[in-house]
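Query structure, 72 tokens:
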């Protein structure tokens, strides 16, 4: 399981950081996808994520995740 955390970011007001179980930064939810998730989080909803694919692209590693609404 991954953790999603809203970040105060001057380049993207909807920035969401993705953290591993041990709280290390994995990356960010892409800007083109983050507005709905940011609004849910700002409304107090809890989201989590799971890695669905890891792909090496040259010197970069592309990590795909699925994001879930945590409903109690």
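Result returned for the query:
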């Amino acid at each position: 399981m991954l953790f999603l955390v809203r970040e105060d970011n001057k380049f993207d007001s909807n920035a969401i950081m993705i953290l591993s179980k041990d709280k290390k930064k994995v990356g960010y939810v892409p800007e083109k996808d983050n507005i709905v998730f940011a609004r849910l989080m700002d409304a107090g909803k809890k989201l989590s994520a799971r890695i669905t694919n890891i792909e090496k692209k040259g010197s970069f590693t592309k990590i795909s995740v699925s994001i879930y609404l945590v409903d109690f």
